[in-house]
């Protein structure tokens, strides 16, 4: 590639027909006004949209220069669509952002400034979130803190995927071919010099969230399982604890039988039996469930299927 652009802006889009035009408008307005006017490309990934998103992107492709359309063969999900875009992007720095304008393109200015200072990753930290339910905000806050405690990787709290990555970080990420992706964690794993810039997350420009509760949960489990094996160890800890309790109780029973005393006044009955059975049954099922989560992921990975398929790539004519 001879005329590699300096900046690539990668946007995964799934049913965002109402957002495409304003998105391109705002991104182009900001990148053309950056100091030292870097060359740029906007990589729009159509993640199997069922609305007019594809046609809207093609409209922009005809209207503007520097547009690249990556059309996936079907819907692969946000993280894989973003990966497809990053794999296609050729810029010296790659900016990943959502297509619903919740990530204000104006922040690109600050990203590029930090990159020019020599940072390899500039990620945006959500100082506030507009137009999102209290439930989503609270669960997200909790989630980032749990993941942080469970993993050895230094994943920043309250940062999404809106970020700039240098070429060497993007190249490093190309080597990660895992299917269940937690991109923000993978970027932290890579290391180099990383810095956060705070911003206020806007409301969605149009349309509805593509992350309903079930998808959010699955994404959260992906995040934890791909960066931590702590849940696997949890079962052993629980097993160890219940064994200790059982052992102490057994000694108590033996001693009280031998001495023929009954200080706790237990009646030999079903209450303690039921509690023990239910508790151990619960612990065992949780343990099997956790094993299943990891095993299912191992199964998915060993199949070694491609993680996404591109139907076609279209580029706008020369600038
Ligand atoms: N997205 C995608 N494929 C999907 C789901 C979402 O490419 O299967 C895109 C979506 O179009 C948007 C971004 O991922 O550009 C973030 O999605 P969304 O705004 O719904 O997530 P939220 O901001 O509600 O967490
Ligand atoms: Mg959004």
Structure commentary:
The chain has helices spanning 20-31, 53-63, 78-88, 108-116, 134-150, 167-174, 183-190, 213-225, 230-259, 270-302, and strands spanning 7-13, 40-46, 67-72, 93-96, 121-129, 159-166, 194-201, 310-315. Strand 1, helix 1 and strand 2 form a beta-alpha-beta unit. It has an eight-stranded mixed β-sheet, with helices on both faces. The chain has two domains: 7-211 and 306-315, Spore Coat Polysaccharide Biosynthesis Protein SpsA, Chain A, CATH 3.90.550; 230-302. By secondary structure, it is α/β, with parallel strands linked by helices. The structure holds uridine-5'-diphosphate (UDP) and magnesium ion (MG).
Write the SSE topology.
Blueprint lengths: L6 E7 L6 H12 L8 E7 L6 H11 L3 E6 L5 H11 L4 E4 L11 H9 L4 E9 L4 H17 L8 E8 H8 L8 H8 L3 E8 L11 H13 L4 H30 L10 H33 L7 E6 L4
Parallel strand pairs: 1-2, 1-4, 2-3, 5-7
Antiparallel strand pairs: 3-8, 4-6, 5-6
Helix pairs in contact: 9-10
Magnesium ion binds next to loops.
Which properties best describe this structure?
319 residues, alpha/beta, Spore Coat Polysaccharide Biosynthesis Protein SpsA, Chain A, 2 domains, eight-stranded mixed beta sheet, 10 helices, 8 strands, elongated, binds uridine-5'-diphosphate, binds magnesium ion
What's the number of domains?
Answer: 2
Query: Quick one: biggest sheet?
Result: 8 strands, mixed
- Across the major sheet, the strand order is 7-5-6-4-1-2-3-8
- What's the tally of helices? 10
How many individual β-strands?
8
Instruction: Label the structural class.
Output: alpha/beta
Overall 3D shape: elongated
Task: State the CATH class of the largest domain.
Answer: Alpha Beta
């Amino acid at each position: 590639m001879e005329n590699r652009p300096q900046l690539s802006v990668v946007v995964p889009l799934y049913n965002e027909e109402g957002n495409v035009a304003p998105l391109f408008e705002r991104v182009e307005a900001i990148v053309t006004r950056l100091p030292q006017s870097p060359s740029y490309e906007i990589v729009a990934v159509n993640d199997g949209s069922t609305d007019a998103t594809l046609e809207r992107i093609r409209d922009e492709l005809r209207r503007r220069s520097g547009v690249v359309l990556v059309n996936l063969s079907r819907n692969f999900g946000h993280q894989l669509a973003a990966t497809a875009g990053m794999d296609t992007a050729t810029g010296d720095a790659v900016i990943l952002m959502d297509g619903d304008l919740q990530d204000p393109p104006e922040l690109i200015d600050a990203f590029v400034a930090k990159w020019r200072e020599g940072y390899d990753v500039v990620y945006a930290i959500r100082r506030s979130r507009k137009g999102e339910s209290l439930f989503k905000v609270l669960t997200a806050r909790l989630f980032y803190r749990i993941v942080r405690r469970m993993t050895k990787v230094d994943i920043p709290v309250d940062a999404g995927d809106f970020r700039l990555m240098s070429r060497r970080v993007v190249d490093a990420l190309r080597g990660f071919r895992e299917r269940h992706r937690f991109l923000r964690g993978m970027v932290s794993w890579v290391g180099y010099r990383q810095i956060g810039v705070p911003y206020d997350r806007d409301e969605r420009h149009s349309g509805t969230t593509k992350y309903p509760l079930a998808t959010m949960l699955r994404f959260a489990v992906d995040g934890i399982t791909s960066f931590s094996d702590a849940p696997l160890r949890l079962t052993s800890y629980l097993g160890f604890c219940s064994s200790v309790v059982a052992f102490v109780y057994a000694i108590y029973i033996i001693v009280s039988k031998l001495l023929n005393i009954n200080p706790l006044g237990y009646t030999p009955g079903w209450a303690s039996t039921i509690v023990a059975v239910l508790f151990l049954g619960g612990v065992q099922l949780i343990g099997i469930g956790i094993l299943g989560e990891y095993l299912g992921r191992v199964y998915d990975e060993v199949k070694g299927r491609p993680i996404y398929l591109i139907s076609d790539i279209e580029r706008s004519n020369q600038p």
